[in-house]
Amino acid sequence: MEKHDPPTFEWTPPTKRRRLTTFAAGTFAVVLFGLCGVGIWIVDGGPANDPTPRPTSAAPVALASPSPDDDVIELLGDSGPRLGSTVRHGVLEYRVTEQRCGVSEVGVGAGSAGEPTRGSFCVVTLSVRNMSRSAQVFTAADQVGYTTTGARYLGSAPATRYANGSSRAFLTPIGPGTAVTGMIAFDLPRGAQLDSLRLRSTASSGSVTVSLS
Question: Locate the DUF4352 domain: which residues (predicted)?
């Protein structure tokens, strides 16, 4: 029987390329660890004993003061909300100074637009001041007048426009900190007189009632 020589194995020493690969991997690990350390240093704000202030480019944020509560009524004086008194409600301040009833026509040259359809006008003079930092709306059609019999009427927008003439009061928003004085006309049955007003910025907002008697 023929005998075979035992198998032999050849050992090849690592090539230079493999050594370079191992060296590159080690170098990468060292660099990565160093970068992580720098990242942690930056996030942490640098050394704790660094006295140098760090300026920021962020602009300061102005915080507006809270607006007055729309449910709070503030009286400026000893009397209740009545003719001649000043009352604040929400962001608006009101002062009703005069009421003229039995007015047969408002405006100059207004024609039928300045004439009442129910009998006569009750024209109320008042001032409205905007206490907020933004423009506020106050229109005649959102104001409610109550007669001495308890009947309820809304202000007449067309008659109010002609009653105020060129001043155009209550036709445009009232600017911040601005006071507007004008008239509101109510179209009432002949002989009727207003007993109180319910004033508000919009139809959906809260209101304050001012006595006219």
Answer: 83-202
CATH architecture of 73-211: Sandwich (2.60)
- 17, 49, 56, 113, 137 from 96: Cα distances, Å: 97, 66, 52, 25, 18
Q: Rounded distance, CA 212 to CA 201, Å?
A: 19
Residue 87 burial (CB count, 10 A): 22
Coil, strand or helix: which one is 203? coil
Query: What are the structure tokens assigned to 169, written together?
Result: 């009061």
Query: Measuring CA to CA, how many Å separate 169 from each of 98, 182, 183?
Result: 16, 5, 8
Give me the residues of the chain with pLDDT under 50, please. 16, 18-23, 30-71
| Cross-strand pairs, 92 | 89, 130
The DSSP call for residue 131 is -
Taking the domains of the chain in order of start, what are their residue ranges? 17-47, 73-211
Per DSSP bridges, beta strands 144-147 and 119-130 are: unpaired
Instruction: Quote the tokens at residue 35.
Output: 């970068």
The pLDDT tens digits for 178-210 are: 999 999 999 999 999 999 999 998 877 788 999
pTM: 0.64
